[in-house]
Amino acid sequence: MGDSLPLSERLSLYFDGSCQENRNVTSETPAGWGVVIVRGDSGLGKGDGEIFEELSGPVVTDSEGDEYLGAEVGSNNTGELSAMAHALRWLLIEGSTSPVTIRGDSQYALKIAAGEWRAKANRELAARVQALWDEVNLLRDVQAEHVRAHRGHRWNERADHLAWRACIGENPLPLQFWKPGMR
User: Fold this and answer.
1) What's the chain's average pLDDT?
2) Domain segments of the chain: what residues?
3) Whole-prediction pTM
4) Which whole-number Å values give the CA distances from 150 to 46, 64, 101, 136, in the listed order?
5) Residues 9, 98: contact at Cβ < 8 Å?
6) Which residues, 6 or more positions from 110, have their beta carbon under 8 angstroms from its beta carbon?
7) Exposure b/e, 83-98, CB count within 10 A at least 16 = b
8) What CATH architecture does domain 8-177 belong to?
9) Residue 1 confidence (pLDDT)
10) Disulfide check for 149: which of 49, 68, 71, 105 has CB 3.0–4.6 Å away?
11) pLDDT tens digits, residue range 31-67?
């Protein structure tokens, strides 16, 4: 990260999205998102650091819903983009100006957020994520890093767990009962 903050104070945000069936998706297809905010994470996949906060919820496709961000369908991609949006919103509310790293296993969401790729579907959601990314980047240095999916990275697996549980409408397991790779 290149900043002078000690590792114990640095924040990393891991995000993930999930859906039950990622084919023939509709606005009725359940999907979820999850974000794990970790303080003191080296990013090396060791699972170091400690959870500062966890966020999760369903992908909202109803344009009249309170948490609607622009998702047209419930899919893995809308889960990933929704997770990224909630991570970025959290950073705006948190209000610090310290550098931060956002890590996810979705190249799609990372590249859409940074404006490197254009969305072919769910354009309203993609535009909202890009606008949030730009706003956060005005306030602090944000680094994006890709993490390989389902490779045992503790915090990426935890974000996956949060997203899956939100997708199926269940509360996440407490960390002390959850093991990496457990959905």
Assistant:
1) 91
2) 8-177
3) 0.91
4) 14, 35, 20, 28
5) yes
6) 84, 102, 104, 144, 146
7) bbbbbbbbbeebeeee
8) 2-Layer Sandwich (3.30)
9) 40
10) 105
11) 999 999 999 888 777 778 899 999 999 999 999 999 9
Beta strand spans in 47-137 (E): 50-58, 100-104
Please give the radius of gyration of the chain, using alpha carbons only, rounded to the nearest integer.
Answer: 15
User: 141, 107, 90: which is closest to 17 by C-alpha?
Assistant: 107
Supply 44's token pair.
């090396």
Question: Band of the pLDDT at 167, cuts 50, 70, 90?
Answer: very high
Predicted pLDDT at 3: 56
10 Å CB burial of residue 48 (0-12, 13-18, 19+) is middle
Q: How far is CA 70 from CA 33, 134, 148, 153, 167, in A?
A: 14, 17, 27, 30, 17
Number of Cβ atoms within 10 Å of the Cβ of 51: 15
